[in-house]
Write a structure and sequence with these properties.
Length: about 450
């Protein structure tokens, strides 16, 4: 048989297959394919993590989309459990958003499903599993099921010489008595990395003096609030959660709650060999860091710990000219202490998911969200399918900061404006996986 004949046979076979089997994927190829299955990540020669991920790697492949250009992503679930993929930060319909609470179908074990949507808004987004894990640390965001999704703007892509996507991550979780002081349980972590390498392993990032490097940083943690710094350099922050600031601002350290993103430009103006990493010495030395090496300047990588000024979103905003208007929508967060060696439960306005009351909104209406944290822990709260603008932080007005996750500090309030402009069931929850799985979730419903 010649190569030509072979191609003809294969071609004919493919046509037959797609015509006769309703369950086989349509002949037209998807733009992206994610296969959920086991991954083995070699963080260092001494530590290989075995977990679940996408396409055999974790983080999963970078999904790069164009704002407004429809895309089809095919998801194969090769695991034994139903799965689901959420496209975090996109304004897309509930049926494809990737949350069963909103009505997106799950992908059964062994099955393939397609998600088709028009990506918007532009910026640094991400994708991740949205199943609940409960006390099973082999599920949900405790696994390696996450990756970057970048939506390119229609115009003005920005100017830089190198672009790096950096996911901050812990691995190998275990149940531990957390530092809540009361002996309740939380996840502890044994290994740390940026992307899939522990500090000191793999190739350094190679830079040249005068380069502008754009870092797109994601805290892909299931549970940990992170502070990071770049020795010898500062971060010129251009976007929070992928949404451009009105004016960039230079800072020495960044803080990111689980699921938050920061885009920052770094001016390479200090030749040498430097570490970017967690300010926590323990976690950085255990792997959460990476080395930047200037051309012609190899050597021992340097670290310096910056002063730890408290993180405050307000420095990125402007003083508002008018006070925000909108129907007040208070959301009060409380902890229900479960007892030593049990996992605490959480409530929003006095109710825990799945018994929570829906938050009712009307389309094309402006709301004044009041996140009122009456607990002693910080919560990275997230609203699906929408972006909100911060209007008050601990009582002080601000404007111009657009987010889809905001960390509400212990016993503090943050206020925001939400324009309800994307009808459909919408999930609101704490992005700390163990809080979300133990009640910290509610559904916003358009009425
Ligand atoms: Cu990033 Cu409901 O999730
Ligand atoms: Cu929380």
């Amino acid at each position: 048989m010649t190569r030509r004949d072979l191609l003809r046979v294969l071609g004919a076979g493919a046509v037959c297959g797609s015509g006769s089997f309703g369950q086989t994927p349509p002949a037209e190829a998807a733009d992206y394919t994610l296969q959920i299955g086991p991954v083995s990540i070699e963080l260092s020669p001494k530590r290989t993590v075995k977990t679940m991920g996408y396409n055999g790697i974790a983080p999963g492949p970078l999904i790069r989309l164009r704002e407004g250009k429809p895309v089809t992503i095919e998801v194969h679930n090769t695991t034994n459990e139903p799965e689901i993929v959420h496209w975090h930060g996109l304004h897309i319909p509930s049926e494809v958003d990737g949350s069963m609470e909103e009505g997106t179908p799950m992908v059964p074990p062994g099955a393939t499903r397609r998600y088709t949507f028009t990506p918007a808004p532009s910026g640094t987004r991400w994708y991740h599993t949205h199943v609940s894990a409960g006390r099973n640390l082999k599920k949900g965001l405790y696994t390696g099921q996450f990756g970057f999704l970048y939506v390119e703007p229609r115009e003005n892509p920005g100017a830089y010489d190198q672009e790096l996507f950096l996911a901050l991550r812990e691995w190998d979780p275990y149940m531990s008595t957390g530092d809540g002081g009361e002996g309740s349980m939380d996840a502890g972590w044994k290994a740390f990395s940026i992307n899939d390498r522990a500090l000191g392993f793999g190739e350094p990032i190679r830079v040249r003096q005068g380069q502008r490097v754009l870092l797109r940083i994601l805290n892909a943690s299931a549970t940990v609030l992170r502070r990071i710094a770049f020795a010898g350099h500062s971060f010129n922050v251009v976007a929070l959660d992928g949404n451009l600031l009105r004016a960039p601002l230079s800072v020495k350290a960044l803080e990111l709650g689980p699921a938050e993103r920061v885009d920052a430009l770094v001016e390479m103006n200090n030749p040498g060999c430097w570490i970017l990493g967690a300010t926590s010495d323990h976690d950085r030395l255990a792997g959460m860091g990476m080395v930047f090496e200037y051309a012609g300047k190899p050597g021992e990588p340097q670290w310096t710990t910056p002063d730890s000024a408290p993180w405050d979103y307000r420095i990125f905003g402007q003083t508002p000219t008018a006070s925000p208007v909108g129907e007040p929508l208070p959301l009060v967060f409380r902890k229900i202490f479960a007892g030593t060696h049990w996992v605490d439960k959480w409530s929003i306005n006095g109710k825990s998911w799945p018994k929570a009351d829906p938050i009712r909104v009307h389309a094309n209406t402006r709301y004044h969200l009041i996140f009122d944290n009456q607990s002693d822990e910080a919560h990275p709260v997230h609203l699906h399918r929408h972006t909100f603008e911060l209007t008050k932080i601990e009582g002080v007005p601000t404007s111009g900061i657009y987010k889809d996750v905001v960390v509400v500090p212990p016993r503090k309030q943050i206020e925001a404006t939400l324009v309800a402009n994307n009808p459909g069931p919408t999930l609101f929850h704490c992005h700390q996986q163990m809080h979300m799985d133990f009640g910290f979730m509610a559904l916003l419903e358009y009425v």
